Amino acid sequence: MPKITIIGSGNIGLSLAKGLIAKDYCNASDITLTRRNIRTMAQEAELGFKLSDNNREAVTDADIVVLAVLPQQLNQVLEQINGAIIPEKHLVVSVISGVNCRDIRLKLGDDIQVIRAMPNTAIAIGQSMTCIASDNALDQNMDEVTRLFETVGAVVTINEDLMTSATALCACGIAFFLRSIRAASQGGVEIGFHAHDALKMAVQTAKGAADLLLQMQSHPESEIDKVTSPKGCTIAGLNEMEHNGFSSAFIKGIKLSAERASGLYKD
């Protein structure tokens, strides 16, 4: 089993660690979690994870090093582990928005194998949509990282120049879909339902729509056609939403998020 160090044990890092042991990818004792204040990690210690507040020491025995800090913290972390990352031993995986593989190799050495991964917050329940990419990694390392993130959801390999787009569509996209569910529940209240019932109905309807596409492997419009009849209530509601810019606003939001994501590390 590979030894893994996750630098930055926030929501994404902890969710990944727990997913790895839940799916028997490795044991908790094979994973080292780092944080500046490890006194707040008593629960993780009880689960069997190793804890460290020294990033350089934490990567020494690792095979896979996962960088899961904020973009503005990355340079400091790379300075700490520079020289401790060995090309023949370590595979570096970054889940940091706006940071490309070359940015990391410039700090750690051009011969370091680096793979970018962009999960979303559904990683906490093993339902992430994770995109991975690299500009230099061996196929066997890409396969390993695919298996790693398949423990917490679905994985798609893309070209690295699409990673900021993946951030907008999948990572930011969680918030967009949640907002649409919230809006649907508010509409439900307007037409007579209690708030808790309206939210439950909206959530299950959204889940059913997503599962329908996944299981039927169909296109959204073909499923929409099944619910719209001439002069019916569904097409009336859809057209009213479109007249008010529903699709256009959604698309513009994704495009703007992609633009912002590309500048996070530089900012």
Q: What does the model show?
A:
Helix content is 51%, strand content 13%. The radius of gyration is 21 Å and the shape is elongated. The model has no long low-confidence stretch (mean pLDDT 94). An 8-stranded mixed β-sheet has the order 3-2-1-4-5-6-7-8, sandwiched between helices. Strand 1, helix 1 and strand 2 form a beta-alpha-beta unit. The protein has 267 residues and is of the alpha/beta class. Helix 7 crosses helix 12 and helix 8 crosses helix 9. The protein has 12 helices and 8 strands. The chain starts with a strand and ends in a 6-residue tail after the last helix.
Structure in a nutshell:
With 267 residues, the protein is an alpha/beta fold. It contains 12 helices and 8 strands.
Give the spatial strand order of the biggest sheet: 3-2-1-4-5-6-7-8
Dominant shape: elongated
Portion of residues in beta strands equals: 5-15%
Question: For the residues shown, what is the average pLDDT?
Answer: 94
Helix content: 40-55%
Class from helix and strand fractions: alpha/beta
Count of strand segments: 8
CA gyration radius, whole angstroms: 21 Å
Main sheet attributes: strand count, strand direction, barrel closure: 8 strands, mixed
N-to-C span? 38 Å
Oligomer: single chain
